[in-house]
Amino acid sequence: MSATPHSRKQLNITLGALLIGLLCGLLVGCGPGAPALALPTLMVTAVVPTPPDTPSIASLPGTYTPIPPPENTPVAALRPSATPASAPLPNPSPSPTPDDPLFGLTIAELAERPYHGSPLQIVETLAELPGFTRSLISYVSDGLTIYGFMNTPPTDGPLPVVIVLHGYVEPAKYQIQDYTTPYADALAKAGYLVLHPNYRNYPPSDSGPNLFRVGYAVDTLNLIAAIKQQAGQPGPLAQADASAIYLFGHSMGGGIALRVLTVSQDVRAAALYGSMSGDERRNFERIQWWSDGVDGRIELTTDDELVQRISPANYLERIQTPISLHHGLDDGMVPAIWSDQLCEALRALGKEVECLHYPGQPHNFDSAGQQRLLRNVRDFFGRN
């Protein structure tokens, strides 16, 4: 028997109500207090601590070379810190007073202050080696006695000078001739007079203030002043050429070199290898992670506007020195992308920079990587 229009309408209403009720029950429940459908939970996974800003280094192809940005690319978009030095910093905070430990740390303050070239002294001869003599040296930086070593080739001057800036080593374990010694030796054999300072707080050097690692840069700037004043004069720097001072910095030493370059125009060329960032907030987030929260507490609680004025990344336009950047693509300590960002920012500003990747190389290069690095650095210094 066929259904009447009224019965068909009633049947449709009933079926619709049943369908709505079924859907509500399956999804979230429609009545007050009705239990929602229990969804399966995700499988528990292990959580591995990851430092901030960890890049996907493995995604970079081994032959990747940063491409020069187009002429209309805004510089701020390429910098690790988005605030360029030429733009007013937001909500400027009062500048630290002379009795404040943060006083004198900004790039502007470092650029305005004088640096004194105290007499560099040979404390003792450490070794007579084929191609150079290694000597223990000392000089004074802001009242602190700083030690290091100098490799001097046996040839007459004037010789170009390379200051080798080492990376972080636990000060209690540091030795005068530490892991960067082979680079200093290779450069001396290539005909450079090489100075390798310890910095303050590295025994037997004196201890002194070093917030944001600015003290290390001050020690380097005072050493440059000493070279300029004493080069060609009777004494340890008689063979030095004051017009040909180069920097070679690894890791922390690369960050020191970058700060020096924003302050001084006395460096002819610089090579930065596995360098720390010019963005100090980024650096100390990673330093705090490395040290399990022990280091970087003061730096990370410093007013952000002041940190921006301390960070070299915001003052790259001040740099007049050609720079060569070198980074291993398997660097698990300092992300390779930090060097890439610095490279792109310098290029966007029209600075002279070359940027080299080393596929398969970690933070401290293996023997083959070191040889390739040294060939590239010697070539770069020779061209500048």
Q: What is the structural class?
A: alpha/beta
In the sheet with the most strands, the strands line up as 1-2-3-5-4-6-7-8-9
What number of domains? 1
N/C terminus separation: 102 Å
Total DSSP E strands: 9
Highest CATH level, the class: Alpha Beta
Account of the protein in words:
This protein is α/β, with parallel strands linked by helices. The chain has one domain (110-383): Alpha/Beta hydrolase fold, catalytic domain (Rossmann fold, 3-Layer(aba) Sandwich), CATH 3.40.50. Helices cover 31% and strands 18% of the residues. The protein has ten helices and nine strands. Strand 1 (121-129) and strand 2 form a beta hairpin.
